[in-house]
Design goal:
0% helix
Length: 55
């Protein structure tokens, strides 16, 4: 299968001492070899922040 499940974790929450938000997503391994970065909503910070793929 070409798609794999990944976890996206907030990058800004730990710097501010809050719990990071996490999202589940999928990516196509053939087209996206690097780590994914997306802007998602973090409810503890109450704003959209950068979320990176967690290994």
């Amino acid at each position: 299968m070409a798609r794999e499940h990944i976890i996206l974790e907030c990058t800004e929450a730990r710097k501010e001492g809050k719990s990071p938000s996490r999202y589940m997503s999928t990516k196509n391994k053939k087209l996206q070899q690097g780590r994914i970065e997306k802007k998602k909503y973090n409810s503890s910070l109450r704003r959209h922040t950068l979320h990176r793929e967690k290994k």
